[in-house]
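Narrative of accomplishments. A recurring question from our advisory board has been how the design workflow behaves on a single, concrete structure rather than in aggregate. To address it, we present the structure tokens for one chain from the evaluation set, followed by the sequence designed for it. No filtering or post-editing was applied between the two.
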């Protein structure tokens, strides 16, 4: 199973919520998961109702079965200082560069440096081992940039490797790119059953495939239940005012006649939504990747909701041996 799980998605699809739920699902049964944020929005802290994440790994949740979820907000400037210390042993000189503004310049101006630092830090966490020899984390889940930027974000290491053809930067970029394109990584795209998110998901998957990045699953989020059966949905598209009025009268509702039109309008709207979702499900099937589905949380994405979504993911096979990687899922 892929140990680096990258979660992207169009804005508004709930990718951060899905990444958080995935980290809980993977930590079930005693596993340790690191949930990584790279956009500086502190969305993970808000979901888990904790204080802002520092640039250090901190436990934020306990999963069923005793597993643990840690979280890290990667800061590009701090990551660059780590990098300079790792390869050049700059120590205090690195901090001096920060005071002079050189660190901010490098992470803002230099082509690809910021993204290679962010992805490199996540890959380092995946490969890190304890003194006893085992991995520090069983899985690392990255709450990545949106679908429109995900391929460039992950593939930027190739660009950096092309600019720096020798030395530590070149070697680091090549090592990261090799890991990101290996079966150790799976990139999932979160979508809704709506036309624009599904189209963006299809485009994103095509871009990932074209650059050799490993596609995981399309994760359909906020799926609403169908409260009417197929016959009722078909009936809602016709004129059944008298039948509905008679049914309401038969159960003794005094205001039955006033409720007929609103009920028919709601039924017709539900029928339209069901049909639109059917069309988008068909569109997703043509993409050729397996899917997970997560329900709409009526009470919002609070901690209880995250645990519910994690249970849904486990029920659909998340964490099972043999899943994950290219075209296989989480």
């Amino acid at each position: 199973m892929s140990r680096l799980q990258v979660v992207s998605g169009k804005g508004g699809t709930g990718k951060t919520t899905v990444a958080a739920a995935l980290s809980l699902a993977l930590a079930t049964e005693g596993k340790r998961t690191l949930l990584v944020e790279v956009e500086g929005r502190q969305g993970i802290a808000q979901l888990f109702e904790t204080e802002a994440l520092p640039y250090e790994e901190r436990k934020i949740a306990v999963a069923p079965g005793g597993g643990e979820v840690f979280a890290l907000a990667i800061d590009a400037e701090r990551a660059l200082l780590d990098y300079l210390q790792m390869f050049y042993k700059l120590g205090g000189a690195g901090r001096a560069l920060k005071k002079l503004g050189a660190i901010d310049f490098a992470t803002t101006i230099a082509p690809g440096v910021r993204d290679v630092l962010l992805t490199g830090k996540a890959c380092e966490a995946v490969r890190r081992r304890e003194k006893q020899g085992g991995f520090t984390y069983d899985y690392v889940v990255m709450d990545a940039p949106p679908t429109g930027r995900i391929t460039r974000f992950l593939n930027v290491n190739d660009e950096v490797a092309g600019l720096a053809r020798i030395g530590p930067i070149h070697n680091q970029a090549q090592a990261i790119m090799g890991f990101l394109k290996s079966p150790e990584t799976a990139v999932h795209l979160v979508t809704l059953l709506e036309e624009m998110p599904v189209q963006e998901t299809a485009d994103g998957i095509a871009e990932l495939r074209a650059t050799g990045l490993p596609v995981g699953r399309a994760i359909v989020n906020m799926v609403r239940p169908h409260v009417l059966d197929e016959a009722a949905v078909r009936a809602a598209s016709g004129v059944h005012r008298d039948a509905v009025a008679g049914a309401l009268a038969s159960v003794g509702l005094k205001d039955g006649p006033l409720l007929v039109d609103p009920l028919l309008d709601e039924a017709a709207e539900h029928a339209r939504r069901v049909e639109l979702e059917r069309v988008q499900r068909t569109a997703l099937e043509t993409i050729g990747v397996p899917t997970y589905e997560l329900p709409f949380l009526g009470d919002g994405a609070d901690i209880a909701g995250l645990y519910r979504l994690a249970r849904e993911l486990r029920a659909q096979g998340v964490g099972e041996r043999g899943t994950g990687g290219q075209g296989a899922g989480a």
